[in-house]
Amino acid sequence: MDIKKLQKIVVDALEDIKAKDIEVLNTSKLTSMFDFMIIASGDSSRHVKSLARNVYDKVKEAEGQVIGIEGEETGEWVLVDLADIVVHVMQPTIRAHYNLEELWQTVPKRGKKSVDK
């Protein structure tokens, strides 16, 4: 499946059931493991689980490949592995704590230089 089509399926699946703060990060220059990371928030554990399950179902319906799904037990952070795209659905406090957007950014933010002592 074309990666742009897969990306659209994922974002549409998240939007269908009201995911919040959907971010698509191009990680192709940072790792060879996957090309894109999509991060979204859900309001509760039930919402997070539903969002991840909807992504899983929509990709399967489109005959896309789903490698696996992790974290459905607690629903704080559910990861859906689609090979070329990794989807993280998180509750807002978990998302703020791990701050994947900053961790996986391609250009370092100014003013955050390390200092050798």
Give a written overview of the molecule.
The structure is a single chain. By secondary structure, the chain is α+β, with helices and mostly antiparallel strands. The protein has a single domain (3-103), classed as Beta Polymerase, domain 2. 36% of the residues lie in helices and 23% in strands. It has four helices and five strands. The protein has helices at residues 3-16, 45-61, 92-98, 100-103; strands spanning 20-26, 36-41, 68-70, 77-81, 85-90. Strands 1-2-5-4-3 form a five-stranded mixed sheet. Helix 1 runs antiparallel to helix 2. The longest helix is centred in the middle third of the chain and has 17 residues, at 45-61. It is globular, with a radius of gyration of 15 Å. The termini are far apart.
